[in-house]
Structure formats: C-alpha cells, structure tokens
C-alpha cells in the first residue's frame, strides 16, 4: 500500500520509533547520506552539460576545479559523513586505506559509533552514455571502544551490517535501503527536493525469467557455469525457458531491475580473475543484505556472501544474487 507523501525522513523516524533502544543516530546518519546523494545527483544530472558549458581541463567557467564525478561523489560523501559526527571511520572504493574520522569531528557525538563503506559512484564509466549509475553504502557498529576507528572496525562480516542501501541516478533518482526491517524504496521529487516513499517492503520474486551476466567472458567460465547459461537459453516450457538476457553493465541498474521484477545477476570468477571483479565490502555485502531482506539469495557460488570473513578492504568476490530459486539452480551447476 503506497503511503501518500511519506518522506524518507518521516519514514526513517517512524522506523526508529519501532526500536525501543534507538537513539536516533542511525536515522540521522541515513538522512545525512540521503542529503549527500541529492547533491551528487545534481552533478550527475548535469554531467552531460559540463562539457557544453565550455569547461576545459580541470577548471569550469567559474574557475572552480572540476573533478571526475566519482572523485566528486567520494569527496561529497566524506565531507557529509565527517560533519555528521556519527562515524569513527569511512572506507571508500576511491580510497586505498580507510579514513579515520578526525578527532575534531568526533566531539560532536558521544561515541561516533558507526563506520560506513561506500562505493561513491559505481559504474561511473557509463555516465557519458547516460546509463544509470549509483552510490552504494554499508553501515556497521564500531567494534573498537573509542577514538578514531580502526581497520578491525572496517573488516566485519556482512551479517553484522546495521543498514545498507543504494541510490540509483537514472531517469529519476531513487534510494533503496534496509535497516533489517524490510527493504523500502524512495523516489526523489526534484520539485520539493524530498525522497518520497514509492515502495514499502520490496520483495523479489522467488523465481524469475531474466539473467544478467557478461557473456563476453563465456570462454573463461567453468564448464558448470557454461552448461547452466546454455540451459537458460534453451527451450524448456516447463522451466519458463529461454530466460531473457538483461545486462546494463552497471551493477546498481542491473540489481535494481532484478529486485523489482525478479532476476539473477552473476559476476562469476573465471580463469583470468578467480574472484571476479566486484568488491565484497561496498558492493556485494550491501546488496546481499538488501536482497536477503527482500526474500532473495546472495552467494559466491557456494558460500553466503554475508558470511564471508573480509581480510582486505578491497577484496573481490564472485557474486550470484537475486531470485532465490534461480541462485540455488546456479549453485547446483557450479558444484
Ligand atoms: P563488465 C561497472 O564498471 C562495474 O563495476 C559494475 O557496475 C558492473 O556490474 C560491472 O563493472 C560490469 O563489468 O566486466 O561486465 O564490464
């Protein structure tokens, strides 16, 4: 049931009230991320114009430094997160090491009890083709007891996430998040600058008729995966085959479509890259929390993504994610 004109902030507060021990800090942190992403969406939507506005090299017509959009997204998020005062550390796809939040910002809050992982602008290479791209985030409670965060705070299993979400910059800007009580989607209404609830408790269909994978890598796949994909393309009315192939090449766009309509997204390991291409901490884990909350499944082909123990901030993992029965089918062929 669509609640008319429920803003993101109103919804987050209503959710917070359901948790007796909630302090409101996570609510504010989610609102701060949403605000940063509204700012990013303005730049992303202008990206095509930046060239037209006679901006040459690294300076725009106002003499301002023009950054690459993913650097811009990273800087915008880091600045917003530091000022929020709720974080002790920030990790980002754009930064080799995690960023301990400076003491001066930590005084704002009693404990700065969270850490966040970001993929600031996943798929940004697609921006010039006007293909949807996205910001992905993953929030944990800190483990360390005080002061700036530590690497240990940042290397936690995905099952420890307290919240996860993404913002997709496409024909409209949409934010999807979960705090462990279902998955909820909000569309940015640019006229009022508010994210409005459009989809409460999103559930992914148990089985789909769509698969997403880069078939250009077919020759590098294992025999089991080739057999599975060949079968998805074969005619088998009882199994609703052939499936439709849908692959945008932008993770958040492919994931979001599959979440709403059903589908199986695969980025497998192969002979050249045994752990695939996607990153565990700021791509696979947040999307895995979302898909499980929506009744779907996410594994690396054999192990649940959320149970993988991270050893490195940027470690990669094969990813099979989406409609539960389709992921289970794929796992049978991969064994
Ligand atoms: P390939 C975009 O560069 C990205 O990181 C993801 O958004 C996307 O799912 C994947 O890479 C596409 O990779 O190898 O199929 O081009």
Explain briefly what this protein structure is.
The chain has helices at 8-17, 25-52, 69-84, 103-106, 151-154, 223-232, 251-261, 280-293, 324-334, and strands at residues 87-92, 99-100, 114-122, 133-141, 161-169, 173-178, 183-189, 194-199, 210-212, 244-245, 264-267, 297-299, 319-322. The chain is α+β, with helices and mostly antiparallel strands and 335 residues long.
In words, what does this structure look like?
With 335 residues, the protein is of the alpha+beta class. The chain has 2 domains: 8-199, 2-Layer Sandwich (Fructose-1,6-Bisphosphatase, Chain A, domain 1); 210-334, D-Maltodextrin-Binding Protein, domain 2 (3-Layer(aba) Sandwich). Helices cover 32% and strands 21% of the residues. The protein has 9 helices and 13 strands. The protein has helices spanning 8-17, 25-52, 69-84, 103-106, 151-154, 223-232, 251-261, 280-293, 324-334; strands at residues 87-92, 99-100, 114-122, 133-141, 161-169, 173-178, 183-189, 194-199, 210-212, 244-245, 264-267, 297-299, 319-322. Strands 2-1-3-4-5-6-7-8 form an 8-stranded mixed sheet, with helices on both faces. Strand 7 (183-189) and strand 8 form a beta hairpin. Helix 1 (8-17) runs antiparallel to helix 2 (25-52) and helix 2 runs antiparallel to helix 3. The radius of gyration is 20 Å and the shape is globular.
> Secondary-structure element sequence?
HHHEEHEEHEEEEEHEHEHEEH
Strand order of the largest sheet: 2-1-3-4-5-6-7-8
How much helix is in the residues? 25-40%
Helical/strand content category: alpha+beta
In the CATH hierarchy, the third-tier topology of the largest domain is known as: Fructose-1,6-Bisphosphatase, Chain A, domain 1
First-residue to last-residue Cα separation: 41 Å
Gross morphology is globular
The total count of helices amounts to 9
